[in-house]
DNA sequence: CCGCTCTTTTGTGCATACATTCGCGTGAGA
DNA sequence: TCTCACGCGAATGTATGCACAAAAGAGCGG
């Protein structure tokens, strides 16, 4: 693995995990020493992070980890809503029914998973597989990559919100509604169900 | 200005203008000599271009200018549709009416510009100012920057389509419909008018 | 005592030298 | 003649040195 990749991956993970909080100044020499790489690959890593808007201020003196304020959460969700809605719509249009029928069966009993830590892990894995299935079904690589950029920032703010069991149970139902619409090939319904899910997710974040 | 910025700007412009056609292999030494910078800033420029998906294959042997096939045009417009629709919706919600009333007056006589080259230049400038006004009115910097990424690729394929006067006249009317909806604060109408405009734009591209 | 300027220092931007890896061609052996 | 392996070369990946610029601190003047 290349040194620039290691530096990029390490910094990215540490920013997403909050180990490098918003506002942290990343000096080149300091970070290159800390990560055990030279300045050249580290600079490449910082350039990549800057292009993802995870750090900013590359021109001037050092780069700073960008902040995740509540206004940015709203902005993020306005973009996310537009893209996930389109993704659901396209997925309903182009999906392989068998794939989503399988997910449908799994989600029907998903609420049973929410009791234990192991179950919670499996639930998150299930949601991940649903996202992947929708991405795949859109048949639109550009949409998927654009969405990935949004989800990166969502992952950062997820740390700020509480995952209480009631919300997770509701979310499971909302996911199931989306799947049902996709299975039936109902494009508008899939879009609207997605809108509902994201609206409630955002509400859960901002009120916590 | 920094050398890496010059290399980035130059390469970006040459790719968008088609001077560096899709499939062109960009070797580091070759390009660094050609642009008169050393390999270090050139690599940074290539990294940035790769993050915009203007070049690909950064891991491996050399980078290649990405292609702009017809499938990618469809993918691009599916994303663009979602984002511009959301932008129009938000603009209708948050706009300063005076700004769009001014654009409204200008667009009402825009068809008169389409006769001469100078008029055409002013027309494109007018469309540009409309896009800027909508971006501004959304109050969502993240949406604007995401849209900018899409528009970058749109600019590349615009070279492939013909701008015949009839299409431009229709487009002017469609723009005016969008502006009318924004002035009236009609969110859904603005979104639908945008959808119509993009549908026709895409149709004009793929049939030419 | 405060402010301004000059100096020092630290850090970034760039260039170049070195290391490494990948591809390709050539040659030998089956 | 075909295939595989070895070696050479070129291009990429990495490290480091140098130069410049900006920020911080100290000294001087008001």
Describe the protein's topology.
The structure is a homodimer of 208-residue chains.
Chain A: H1 3-16, E1 25-26, H2 28-35, H3 39-51, E2 55-56, E3 63-65, H4 70-94, H5 97-108, H6 117-138, H7 141-158, H8 165-183, H9 187-206
The structure holds a DNA duplex (30 and 30 nucleotides).
How would you characterize the overall build of this protein?
- The structure is a homodimer of 208-residue chains.
- The first copy, chain A, has 208 residues and is mostly helical.
- Chain A is built from nine helices and three strands.
- Chain A has helices at residues 3-16, 28-35, 39-51, 70-94, 97-108, 117-138, 141-158, 165-183, 187-206; strands at residues 25-26, 55-56, 63-65.
- A three-stranded antiparallel β-sheet of chain A has the order 1-3-2.
- The longest helix of chain A is centred in the middle third of the chain and has 25 residues, at 70-94.
- The radius of gyration of chain A is 19 Å and the shape is elongated.
- The A-B interface holds A 2, 40, 43-44, 47-48, 51-53, 59, 72, 75-76, 78-79, 81-83, 85-86, 90, 140-143, 145-146, 149-150, 153 and B 2, 40, 43-44, 47-48, 51-53, 59, 72, 75-76, 78-79, 81-83, 85-86, 90, 140-143, 145-146, 149-150, 153.
- Chain A binds a DNA duplex (30 and 30 nucleotides) through helix 3.
């Amino acid at each position: 693995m290349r040194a620039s990749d290691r530096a990029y991956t390490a910094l990215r993970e540490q920013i997403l995990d909050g180990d490098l909080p918003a506002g942290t100044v990343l000096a080149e020499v300091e970070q290159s020493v800390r990560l055990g790489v030279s300045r050249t690959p580290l600079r490449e890593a910082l350039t990549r992070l800057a292009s993802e808007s995870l750090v900013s201020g590359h021109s001037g003196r050092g780069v700073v980890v960008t902040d995740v304020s509540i206004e940015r959460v709203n902005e993020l969700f306005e973009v996310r809503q537009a893209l996930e809605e389109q993704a659901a719509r396209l997925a309903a249009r182009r999906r392989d029914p068998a794939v989503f029928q399988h997910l449908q069966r799994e989600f029907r009993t998903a609420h049973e998973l929410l009791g234990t830590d192991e179950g919670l892990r499996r639930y998150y894995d299930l949601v991940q597989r649903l996202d992947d299935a929708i991405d795949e079904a859109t048949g639109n690589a550009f949409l998927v990559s654009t969405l990935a950029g949004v989800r990166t920032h969502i992952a950062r703010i997820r740390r700020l919100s509480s995952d209480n069991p009631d919300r997770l149970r509701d979310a499971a139902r909302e996911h199931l509604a989306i799947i049902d619409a996709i299975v039936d090939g109902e494009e508008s319904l899939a879009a609207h169900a997605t809108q509902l899910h994201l609206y409630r997710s955002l509400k859960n974040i901002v009120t916590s």
